[in-house]
Amino acid sequence: MARTALVTGGTRGIGKAICLALKRAGHRVAANYAGNDEAAKAFREETGIPVFKWSVADYEACRDGIARVEAELGPVEILINNAGITRDVPFHKMTPDQWREVIDTNLSGVFNMTHPVWNGMRDRGFGRIVTISSINGQKGQFGQVNYSAAKAGDLGFTKALAQEGAKKGITVNAICPGYIATDMVMAVPAEVRQKIVEQIPVGRLGEAEEVARAVLFLVSDEAGFVTGSTLTVNGGQYLV
Ligand code: NDP
C-alpha cells in the first residue's frame, strides 16, 4: 500500500538511498536536509523527490517542517530518522559544543521528529518509525564518546517507544549499519579506512542501498510483528 514517508537527511548518502528505495516501492516520499542546498538541488533534479530544509536539532522547526510536508503529501505514515553528524575527537579534547551538537542532532533530533508525528499515527492506528543508529552505538568507538552515546540512546528510545506504539499499530525499530561508503566514511583518512575494512568479515564497506533494503522490510505493512528490534547491517563486524 502506498504511504507517505519522510526521511531526515534524505538528500545524501544512506538517506538518499532510502528515499529512492521508498519511491521505487510506490510510496510518496519527502526528503529533509539541513544546510547543503547544492546537494539538495541536485537530489531534487535527479529524483523528482521534494526537499524540505530544517534542522532536526530544532523542535519548533521540526513541527513546522512536518506541517509543510503534510500539507503537500498528506499525513506522515513512515518516518525514517536518518539525519546524523559526527564531531570526532578524543574525550579529553572534546568541547561541550562538540558534545551538544552531536546529542542535539543524533538523539534529540529523533525525539524532535518523532514527537510531532506520534499522535497522528496513534489516531490513524498505523505508523512505521525507523531510526538509523550505528554499530558504534552498540560497541562504542574511540574518539566518538558523543556519537556512541547518542546512537546508544537511539536504541533505548526505540525499545521504550515500541512498547507504547504496539497496541496502536505503530512499529518502532532501529538499524545499526556498520561502515557504509558515504561522505561520512569517505571523510576518514584512506589508511584508517583500510584498517576498518580489515575488521569487516565480508571484506568491504557496505553500500547505502544495503541499508535501504533493510528499511524497506521494516516499513512494510507485513512487518507489523517486528517492533523494538535492532537490525544489524554490518558485514559481520560486530555481532550481538
Ligand atoms: P551523510 O553525511 O552522507 O549525510 C547526512 C545527511 O544528514 C545529509 O542529508 C545532511 O544534510 C543531513 N543532516 C545532518 N545534520 C542534519 C540536521 N541537523 N537536520 C537535518 N538533516 C541533517 O551521512 P550518512 O549517509 O553516512 O549517514 C546517515 C545516517 O547513518 C547517520 O545518522 C549516520 O550517523 C548513520 N550511520 C552512518 C554510517 C556510515 O558508515 N556512513 C554507519 C552507521 C551509521 P545536509 O546535506 O544539508 O548536510
From TrEMBL:
Keywords: Oxidoreductase. GO terms for cellular component: cytoplasm. It comes from Marinicauda algicola. Belongs to the short-chain dehydrogenases/reductases (SDR) family. It comes from the Bacteria. CDD domains: BKR_SDR_c. Residues 3-178 form the Ketoreductase domain. InterPro entries: Acetoacetyl-CoA_reductase, KR_dom, NAD(P)-bd_dom_sf, Sc_DH/Rdtase_CS, SDR, SDR_fam. Pfam families: adh_short_C2. The keyword Transferase does not apply. One of its GO terms (biological process) is poly-hydroxybutyrate biosynthetic process. This is Beta-ketoacyl-ACP reductase. GO terms for molecular function: acetoacetyl-CoA reductase activity.
